[in-house]
Batch of 4 targets.
Target 1
Amino acid sequence: MIIKAFLFDLDGVLTDTSELHFQGWKRLAEEEGISFTREDNEALRGVSRRESLNLLLKGRQVTEEQAREMMERKNGYYLDLVQQMTPADLLPGAREIIAEIKALGLKQAIVSSSKNAALVLERLQIGDLFDAVIDGNAPARSKPYPDLFLLAAQAVGVPPANCLVVEDAGAGVDAAHAAGMPALGLGPKERVGHAELVFDSLEHHTAREILAFFAPRRA
Ligand code: BG6
Ligand code: MG
């Protein structure tokens, strides 16, 4: 298939906000007397704030009001950490590949489950390099449902089959496939091994190399 657009997840793909999300949830869990480890945090990658809280609570029952308060508290901790971010917090290889895609004249979009994506893009100073930003504020179901990716394909005017999703989360790769899009998974095989192509990170990789991998092969 021919790739005409790159749809980038943000957290854990272009910047390591997954660590900041972990710090925020960990602090909330400690205050609530719930154990929460880095391993537990792996299941939260890519999923919405509400679903993350459900996973963290491990079956503990809370009222709607308590749930809302806990999410707000965690978000406050997270935002404090995001305020300290700078363009230096782009992950290795991210800036180069975004610039290359732009220079090649291909479309690119951010597709994030986060309601804070716009703020993170502002801190990283890369917002103007994208043709569209679809985030957790969109009136759509979160990953692993395909909705956010389908909205992004529409926004950049490229058919889903010609969009390549770049994801660090298993739920994100599932969402890409549900949208009829191939995926480049970043991270260990146990997490993103179901993607068509898997890299440890974007470092030392180019858009041209990725396009060549997905290009239709001549018989
Ligand atoms: C995803 C992250 O991008 O956004 C998750 O991978 C996070 O860890 C989710 O929980 C929701 O983010 P936010 O900023 O709306 O709480
Ligand atoms: Mg992610």
Target 2
Amino acid sequence: MFDVKDVLAKLSIQEKISLLCGDQTWQLTGFEKHNVPSIILTDGPHGVRLEDKSATTPFTFLPATVYPAEAAMAATFNTDLIHQVGQSIAKECHFYNVSVLLGPGVNGKRSPLAGRNFEYYSEDPYLSGHIAAAFINGVQSEGVGTSLKHFAGNEQETRRFLINSVISQRALHEIYLRPFEIAVKQANPWTLMGAYNAVNGSPACQNSYLLQDVLREQWQYEGAVMSDWGATRDKLEAHNNGLDFEMPGPGKQNEFLFEQFKLGNISQQTIDTRALNVLNLIKKATEGKQQITKINWQQHNKLSEQVAKESIVLLKNDNHCLPLSKNINVAVIGQFAKDSRFQGGGSSSMTAKMVTHALPELEKVANITFAQGYIEENVTTTQLAEAVAACKNKDAVILFVGTTDAIETEGFDRTDLLLPKDHLKLIDAVLEANSNTIIVLNCGSVVDLQSFVNKTPAIVMNWFNGQASGSAITDMLFGKISPSGKLSESFPICLEHNPSFDCFPGGKNDVEYKEETLVGYRYYDTKKLPVQFPFGHGLSYSNFEYSDLEIDITQNSVTVTVKNTGQIQAKETIQIYIHPIKSYLLRPEQELKGFVKTDLAPNESKTVTIVLCDRAFEHYVPHLNRYACEAGLYEIRASSSSRDIRLTQTVNIQSNDPVKIKPTQKDTVFEWFEDERTFADIDELLKLLEIQPGHFFWGILKSLPIEHAMQMINNMTLSDEIRAKCKEIISRHD
Ligand code: BGC
């Protein structure tokens, strides 16, 4: 094994510079003479997507296991399971000699229109961060690296190479950086990928605030930072400000950087630091190498199926119409039942090793009449008529609809939340023909359900659920398993309710994150807006009873007892939200700060312990430039969804953090009256003046800045002694 410092000492400056860019599209520079191999990096994130170099057509990828897309992974709320996914993807990486998987992505979901939402975990930074950490730890435990992407502020596809995301410090840290921070601190990804866009005026790959101040200094990150493919705008600035290597290769700008070095515009020390980070990455990859020549593809397929089973969200189930009984007569409608729609478009789109479509699986358990319904987005008159005919006299209809690659893909944002027009037409016609129609949504993220939500008894969110989604959905529909997925993002009633509606995707240059920290349920709950289906929602075939909420603040943990009161084995995710009862700065109504998923047999009870987030009671306080905790009362909510709060308890949190800015003489009498640090003194002064709340002059006085109030006091008919006393009282807070 090579020694990094030794190799660095032997490299010429040009060789060091060559490490600062890939050698090829998917490969880093290596040096055979020093035993430094040229390692392979490839997408990601829900499986290995390695280009087939022997193929004669472009975009041909070697077959690998396709796991559910990230939004679905997050809906499992099962970190152990996602850790296993990471491990099994790493094995496939070894099989294909891949050293770094380009994922996971933890960007935010400020708008449901964002084209890559399916590739990101959740609208909630805590859930995203924890699922990402589990995934990264899984992959890296097998000696393969990950690339946490896209750092940061990449919440849209529109003008992604050009747009500048304007984000307040508070929203940046609490919402958009938080999942990165959790993943960096809990899983230490080997690499991190800088985004295309700029953040607050500086392109992400050369943004020294993000790359140096936050990542290296505050979070103590020691891995290597790469650019997204083609994201380096100014190579000199980028390396000077914290980027270790540019992708993809070959290094067309190596010569340019060498010239800049000669001109003294980049130091030897900076080049050494960057080259050392790249060499360390190559070394980790070399040490982690495993010779895997055989994959148990069936076992990986089973794991993909298990994730799919745990991610399916039963949104609606009137009169317990699901699960269906076996051997009934069912019409199955829709191309996506036959040709599974299991992943989205763009750089995450893979070649599946094997695919289980739903139709043949459904045929094993019921008497099925199938009708194609549509091809991609289009329904012909004949297809419509066949679908309607198939539905007649059936015990139930299962209708598969969803979005296509033209709708949900990298590179574009959606323009609305609607399903394809023809799918909506088909839904109407099928519901008309048979009202017992279960709608299965094959979408990577939220869609508008308004036109049919009240007409159908059951809706199932089946996501882009990976290569084994056909058997998973069959088991769920026919009750072999109870659904246990919970929504990783809110379903608003309509797009217009979304807080970023009037500021997404921004203008030509800038997109302003005007909604601040009020993203997703943080907004809907604070505004008390009704939603179609709330964050964390997901029905079960069983019922759960919550009891005995106990809080141990010294351990930062919560315990709850949950009982399965239904007839079947089922899993429940207990979600802990924290609601600040009173706060100095506007804070969301509640925020997720812990969760656990537990499996319960009928009648079984378990007492589960949930360790809360290390920042459970903190928020980012702009005037302190850091996270801080405001002392006071907080309600802890043990919930089955963000809108299904089962148990609450109030705790009194002590803190000396100066979250509230102490009033000065420039602030008002009322502000002095409201603050415990100035109350006693202003109260004393008011008593001297014989003015109390309720006095006819109180309204005028309380709105005056202290300085003005003092001028007024000077002009009042008062004894010199009282006037002097008033002055003395105020001067206590100079
Ligand atoms: C995407 C990245 C991806 C890279 C390599 C970029 O367009 O934004 O997520 O890893 O391409 O395919």
Target 3
Amino acid sequence: MTMKTNIRVSDGMGTVKETVYGQFIEHILTCIEGGVYDPHSSFADETGIRTDVLDKARELNPPIIRFPGGTIMCQYHWEDAVGPQDKRIKRKNLIWGGELNPSFGTAEFVSFCRRLGAEPMICVNMVSGTPEEAGNWVEYCNGTGDSYYAQLRRSHGYEEPFNVKYWCIGNESYAEPDLGVHHDVSLYIRDALEFIKVMKLTDSSIETVLVGCDKPEWNKAVLDALHPFGDYLSLHHYSAENQKGLYGPFEGEKALIQMVEEAEALIDTYPDTIENFNPWYRFPPRKGKLKIALDEWNIWNFVADKTYGLLSTYNWRDAIWVASALSVILNHPSIEIANMAQLVNVLAPIIAHPEGAYYQTIAYPFLLYRKNMIGERVNLEWQPVYFDGGEAGTLEALRCCAVRAEDGSLRMIVVNRDFSNAHTISIGTGKASATVLTADSPEAFCDEKTCCVHKEEKTVACDEIILPPGSVMLISDLHI
Ligand code: AHR
């Protein structure tokens, strides 16, 4: 029997930005081609979008979607994939294999976002692309004047601008095996500045995301040079089993927390307001505090074969990891954007099965958070309880986060990451409503016929709430 944990409500920590529930689609294996977009599917509409996938995505309700990569941005030329379909240019997909199908390009992506009520977030090619090409992309998307690229968009049938606000200045540029030379941070800084200049001169209202990572010295060099020019610092995190058994990914999550907290500490050293910005830039500097865009995150058990372990079947252990990671995201207010990687088929909550799309396990905790955890973020305090995670070492059993809903009540999600023991919590007196997600075992997974996730609704006594082993519990209607 484990000890009871008292959870106390402490101070507020700002508002949870909806953009932490973002998604990501890339030209990678079957994420876009055969996932989002598949004109040959019986579920496709007249635009080639799979409506069954769209419906599942609509329920996940992403407020922001990132595109076209990811690593594919190293070779992505946006002009290949706009205008009449028969004029588009198909290239070999050098990064992920196969071909890079240009049928789903900028306009199709923006339209997909709008159908879901999401903001588009575009990542520009800093490797084989140029600042001019990136600036032209901004103009094609956002131009309202009589310029060539604004007119080009109109000639493609889009009178109104796409108003793309979020622009990523490269992707994982520090990764030496990737194409390009930007793993040398001084070259990233030199080139990122040129890209931002052209892009912000084209549309000064855009917000830019600078490449950051788990190396503090990279982040410091980038921000020392570019903090007035960037609105967000991008961080990516994938946890993996790493030959450490069932709890391996939970050990991996410690690296996520460390990376975010080191970046937060660094961000705090830069001013919120930029003074004396050279007016000759002719666009404004960053306004307000630098923020973190965790614009790729998930669990990824990498395999060195042709699909790199990307076509992952997620089990219930992975869903508990996702619930835990979302709690980490919500407890770090500096993270204002987060994009689960990726939406369909590849490391994905949605599988586009030929007989109809279905959710993998990881979608269920995501939905619980997305539907309930919006509002004023509330700090919680509790004495951590630990359990033996085998080869992954000693781990904390619980992850908790809370928001105050519009009606003044408190909503809390508590994740029990211990698959062997129930844990008991107390959060005051009275009764509350609870929704509990469990599965029969950590290895359970969903397929096109069966959903392995059990959902129970019940009333709980707040002074003794029992969290089943490996469970996620939403506790709502709390008046504390
Ligand atoms: O999401 C898959 C890949 O992971 C992305 O292309 C890349 O940015 C990251 O390394």
Target 4
Amino acid sequence: MAIQVIGVSGLPLIQKGDDLPALICGRVTLEDGDILTIASSVYSKAKGFTRELSAITPGADAVRIAEKTKEDPRFVQAVLDSSTDILLEYPFILSEVPSGHIGVRAGVDHSNIEDGRVIVLPPDPMAAAAEIRDAIRRIVGKDVRVIITDTCGRSFRRGQTGIAIGWAGMTAINDYRGDTDLFGHVLQITEEAVVDEIAAFANFVMGESHQGVPAVVFRNCKAWKGHDAVYFTPEEDIIRAALAKNKKD
Ligand code: GDP
Ligand code: MN
Ligand code: MN
């Protein structure tokens, strides 16, 4: 069956307290097995994971980093507050957030929100995905899979893509290890990060600016089996180790 991809348009500007799953269900007819992707920006706005810059007093680290990056020190403080580990300060802050995701400026956004406010990533995006999934089941009685996305830069390549920061009803990875290729070779390495592949295409449908399409539905996607250990452990992560070594030198 052909995979169908449906952008959910017609949603309002999301405010704190909005019932996002109900609003989505009002604009698209969901089916069992659908994969519903939601931009983290709108999830965060609905839940109030935003900050008013005027209410932030930057500390010494924020002021020091902001001088290098030429950013608003209050914005830098918001990034530091969202971070559990700073991997790089300049030319941009690269940091880890509580979920294990590593991203530029900790995913703190000042686009698609009023002047003077920033959107921060949901602190527990896995729980966010599970919560949306449960809400959809409650509202329309359908068993959907959910991915919370964010737009992220990549190492080695120019250009941003969508990635998954939280998911429910599926594993992050489709583990092909032990499977055989067309010639009978046993695959030793291949773990496909399916949630990121779907998030990337969702991001393409959403756009990045005024399109107003914060949710995308994928219909007729197969199921897969694997695991959720998508983040390297610090011991496995050679790039992180190299950055840490570079910091010390
Ligand atoms: P992010 O990738 O999660 O940081 O989100 P973006 O800011 O890139 O927005 C992704 C999509 O959602 C774009 O189509 C935006 O126009 C749209 N979007 C963002 N905020 C809202 C909102 O409050 N309401 C609606 N209807 N769309 C929004
Ligand atoms: Mn974002
Ligand atoms: Mn985006």
